[in-house]
Structures are given as C-alpha cells and as structure tokens.
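Recall from the previous chapter that SMILES is a line notation for molecules. Here it describes zinc ion.
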Amino acid sequence: MCPLARRSFLIGGLGLVGAGAGLLGTAGDAAAVTSPEIIDCAGWGARPNSDVVPVRSQRPVKIIVHHTATPNTKNLSRGAADNLARGIQNFHMDKRGWIDTGQHFTISRGGFVLEGRHRSLEALRTGKRQVEGAHCSGQNLVAVGIENEGTYTTGAPPGRQWDRLRQLCAYICEQYGIGATEIYGHRDFKDTACPGDSLYGMLPRLRGEVAGALGQAASSSALQLASWPLLRIADRGPTVLAAQHLLRAAGERDVVADGQFGRSTADAVRRLQTAHSTEEVNGMLGGESWPLLVSVADQAGDADVASAVQALNAGRPLSRSLRGPADWQQLLDPNTPR
Ligand SMILES: [Zn+2]
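With both inputs in hand, we obtain:
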C-alpha cells in the first residue's frame, strides 16, 4: 500500500471556475457545503490506538490525496469499506509500527467515507485542530491525508467514490478555511507514483469542482498548480534529458544525457536519494528528490545546468536566471507558457 509506504484536465476556456451556472452567486454561503456522512472509528470497529494521538491546536493548510494501491474491488458494500479500514489499520500498526492508522480519512470504492486515525473527525468538526497523521512525512502537521481505495494508475475512481472525495474535500476546505487550489497528490512531495497517474491527472478537475462547491473563483492555471514531474524507468523526452544533465552537474558524470530514463539514470537517482536520506530509495525522481537535485546542480554552476535549461526551453537559453527550486519547478511544468 502506498502511504502506507513509510517512508488534464483544463476547465475548458472558461478561465473562471464557478463562473457558469450561477455558482459565484453562492460565494460565502457556508450552508451550501455539508459534510458527507463519515463513519467514525467506533463505527468500523477500530482497535484502540497504541499511544496518545497528538492533536495540535492549529489548522491544516492543505489536503493530500492518496490511493491505497490495493485492488480495484467490485465489492462496493459497507462491509467491504469496514474491512478496508481495519486492514489498513492493522497494516500500519503491525507492519509499520505506527500508533494508529496513518491517514485522516479513507474513502472506499463504494463511496463510504471513514475516519482513519482516531480523533480526526472530532478535530475536523471543530475546524481548529489537526491530528498529527502519518501519511506523508514532512506534511503530517499541515496536511489532511485522504486515502482512496484502489489503484488509479489507469482508470478513474467509481462515480460514488469521486463524489464523496469532492464532498469531503469541500467540507475540509470549508471547516479549515483552505483554498480549493491547496489540494495536492502524494507525489507532489515524495518520490512515489501515488495517487496513480490517472487520479493525479484528475486533481485539477477535483480542485475545480471543490472551488465550485465552495463558491470560490479560481483560474484554470491556478487549478493546474506547478508541480514536479514524476520520472521513472522507460520515460523519455526533454524532461528526462534535463534531469540527466542535472544529475551530471550533481556529480553523476557517467549518466548519458540521451533523454531516455534507463537503469543507469535510475541508479544515479538512487545514489542521490541515499546521499540525502530521502524517505524512499527507489530511483524514481519525484517531489522529494527534484528539489534536492536542482539545488545540488545549481551549486555546481556546471555547463550541464545550462544544457538542462535548454532542454526544457526548446533548445534556447533563458533570458533570466533561475533563482532556486521554485523557478526550476516552473520551468519543468509543461503548463508554463514559454
Ligand atoms: Zn500516498
């Protein structure tokens, strides 16, 4: 299971989401957003947590979407949802050694919403407190984690699951005062395929639908978010070429810059991950390793850095200089206008 691991959709040409269908007219109408039914820990038969669950007097500022990387079951029943929640808790407590379920909420393929870690629902109802989770290290105090049952490498979540995800996100945003654009995927922060290429690709749509539910206006570019591309074995193209140049600048001189992510590139990423003690050492270049790579490469001030820039900018140098990871992130984002 994914998080469990320890360690585009454009709103077509409208520009503003919620501008149609009179949604903007409901702006500020809190009554429009209601909580989906949420089954609490007692409801699905959770074990007691093995230690005190830390509850902080602060609001989370974002939501992180995961998939469980479990089979796409056809059993959409309440019983299956309860079993899923118990299975995840057992896995997290017995195999990971955690005090309780890692994520705050779980949504089954049948569309049942369940509390994950104890007290998450109570904290959400207050709108003022955050349970410290264990779904994405570095983000557990600031992000609400939602696990969606299934593997969404390809294929979309069933309609009921999607509807509940939208409702739950809208309710969390409403309760904590979080903007709809602050919905992320696990891979935005870690070197992981979670929440799957398909579900990750649906996040702009999710942000748009949540913005609509909240009566928030958001431009289509804001819904896209600049993020780090996830690169893996068998990927190819200019982004891979740029990554290879950056790896070379970072000291990996044996990497051949050919635009094809093969085993030697993955091995170089593994060494980078090992050197920086990232959560995963898996050869995937994602949200945790990219900022490390661009920082190390920048410091080297190497000719390969210029080649990386050109690879991302249609063979041309940039007219401005890059100032840190955020600039690189923008340059790597295929949605950034050139
Ligand atoms: Zn995840």
